[in-house]
Amino acid sequence: MPFDTTLPTRLKAHLTPTEAVADFWRALGHAIRFGKDPDFDRRFRDTFSAEHEAAARGEVMPWLATPTGALSLILLLDQYPRNAFRGLPRMYATDAFARTIADQALRLGHDQATEPMLRPFFYLPFGHSEGVADQERSVALCSSLPEPVPTHARGHRDIIARFGRFPHRNAIVGRLSTAEEICGLAAGGFQG
What we know:
mainly alpha, Methane Monooxygenase Hydroxylase, Chain G, domain 1, Serine Threonine Protein Phosphatase 5, Tetratricopeptide repeat, 62% helix
């Protein structure tokens, strides 16, 4: 299904910021959420840049009080940068903060109060981490979800277990790739 270009404007006109972010993400299909579409990236960036900046500065922490607010915070800190700043180091700048928010949201049970289709987004900040413990937590959290979520979580964990980091990020963040990483990427390894 193609991206409805009028959706962001319609949502922001009638909903609270937390509802607008969550409903925007809810309306997208899997292919758009996880694809690489410059037009979608631009629209997402332009529509929610103020909300992302406020979230990154910690100015909307009261959103954490509700499941929808917590989900919106996580989306703005974890998913938004991956689209808005694709290919730039800034796409990972709020990852640690996203994990902190996700951890707090899980302690409050917000993931369980969210529909299953959106529940994985509470867990992705752990799957985006280059830490082994975070990866194991991601796999455990995703294990009860429908496929392909558990398979993707295990795939992320296996990359960290093998390389200790995500090799596809190396060029973006200025790291040198090892020969093994180069071979792994050339053989069709995860490209991000």
